[in-house]
């Protein structure tokens, strides 16, 4: 007898990565890649909420209110917040049980006190943004610490709470996450000011830095923050909408894709599309009504399940997805096609045990629906150069619409999702350079996120997540000092090092060889004279001969231009000595 839609499957761990997080089940992959059959979302339209915001940032900043907000936050943590917040927390709790968690409730109280009086441009309380950011993380199934950090993510930058305060009340783990999000926000702001998104290579490098310099969970929180901000972009002036949308399209949506959070990626892209090309967005949305059938995938999936059962063919998963509007638009532009020439607006995927079952399923499918000539591809017998394997066919359904069906084994599926044929890589990096160590690092982060969400995911429970008691026994894996995929100082990874250079508020993302020092970088990049001082990751630099590492932010604070070109090590040794003497 055929099993139900998705039985838990033991997945093969990626052979090159250590330590391995527990492998994700196909159920999870289905849940994250596309809704499982029977769980299809009612509409693929992006949820455009009507929250609005102010000009330069997403909130109206209150005057310097750090110490007062810290006092209120301290009181709120002790007392559990004030009565006014009851409706917001109750709303959040009704959506996600995690908002009843003790740590999360205290974080809510602290965020409420810290942001009290701050409003969005729409007039909505700022706290609403914090709650929505945390709710997005809760939807992914994040740990309480991550949800708490989501609630607190702006309290350091925008409400004057300190790292020490958060660490004292919520632990160093939560404080580190908040600090990480702050760093990412800072870099993102610089990137917007410098229009980094317009320079593809720099945008690529910036994403890599984001992944390399922070705990993957801080990136998750930043993504959730950006998704909610994109959903509430309406009241910003047009130029701000454009710069947020541009940055989101080039940096945050690809990040979500690399991390395997496809649902967020699609929402971000659709929102960017709406703000960047409003006319095209409206035109395609209208045309799509002709080619889009909300119920077709669920109906086709049911029919296919029944047919497989009748033939006694077991399968691991069957699920479908509607292609997003932005993906349709991109494919039309890339291939110069009209909408009626896009055959995968509706798609279904079937995952089976072995090759023979794949071909048997193909035969069943071709009996169920007439095939569209010229659309069958046998990547099982003829794998793509990147080792992607699958059978693809397009059939015409009862609704007289094309349906693309992909058929593969679970190993082929894991290869397509996590291996060299991984979707993010196949889509985005083919045309761009991406060194092996960076690819591996992204794979690692993706595994971590997948593992993290699977373990905790409450909306799509897996065999692992069902046992609530198992939650606390897992912590997110991290690189050991010896791990080659880590970019920590101790590691001797083989790829280039990416650092951020700030000069007069101008930011550039620089690729430098391993073991380069600050002096090496200055010699290469500066032509505007000798900087008076340097700051590395916000600390004044005394030793200019120190090596730079992945994700370092080097700030040049210039003095008057000087005619001498080049910075010799000897000069800097002397300079350092002078500095040391003057500071002693
Ligand atoms: N992960 C992954 N998916 C792939 C790869 N190649 C194809 N696919 C999937 O298969 C779908 C269709 O691929 P093909 O049958 O080769 O079709 P195509 O030549 O791209 O063009 P169309 O037939 O117009 O879609 C893509 O939209 C992807 O979903 C790959 O290398 N890696
Ligand atoms: N037939 C299908 N059934 C289920 N999921 C699919 C199917 N085709 C693609 N997907 C998944 O849906 C997500 C979004 O796919 P999308 O159509 O945007 O990109 P794509 O498949 O690479 O298409 P293309 O390159 O043709 O534009 C990806 O995770 C992809 O693996």
Description:
By secondary structure, this protein is α+β, with helices and mostly antiparallel strands. The chain has three domains: 86-277, Hypothetical protein af1432, CATH 1.10.3210.10; 292-418, 2-Layer Sandwich (Beta Polymerase, domain 2); 436-455 and 492-562, Phosphatidylinositol 3-kinase Catalytic Subunit, Chain A, domain 1 (Ubiquitin-like (UB roll), Roll). 49% of the residues lie in helices and 10% in strands. It has 23 helices and ten strands. A hairpin with a 5-residue loop joins strand 4 (391-396) and strand 5. Helix 6 packs across helix 11, helix 11 (216-231) runs parallel beside helix 13 (262-276) and helix 15 (296-310) crosses helix 17. The longest helix is centred in the first third of the chain and has 22 residues, at 172-193. The model is unreliable at 1-66, 429-434, 454-492 and 560-569 (pLDDT under 50).
Summarize the structure.
By secondary structure, this protein is an alpha+beta fold. It is 49% helix and 10% strand.
Largest sheet: 5 strands, mixed
N-C termini distance: 81 Å
Total domain modules: 3
The CATH architecture designation of the largest domain is Orthogonal Bundle
Kindly state the mean pLDDT as a whole number? 75
Count of distinct strands? 10
Helix content: 40-55%
Class based on secondary structure composition and strand pairing: alpha+beta
Based on CA atoms alone, the radius of gyration comes out at 26 Å
Number of helices: 23
Under the CATH scheme, which class of the largest domain?
Answer: Mainly Alpha
- The spatial strand order of the largest sheet comes to 1-2-5-4-3
Q: Which small-molecule ligands are present, each listed once? A: guanosine-5'-triphosphate, adenosine-5'-triphosphate
Apparent shape: globular
Low-confidence stretches: 1-66, 429-434, 454-492, 560-569
Strand content: 5-15%
CATH superfamily of the largest domain: Hypothetical protein af1432
In CATH, the topology of the largest domain is named Hypothetical protein af1432
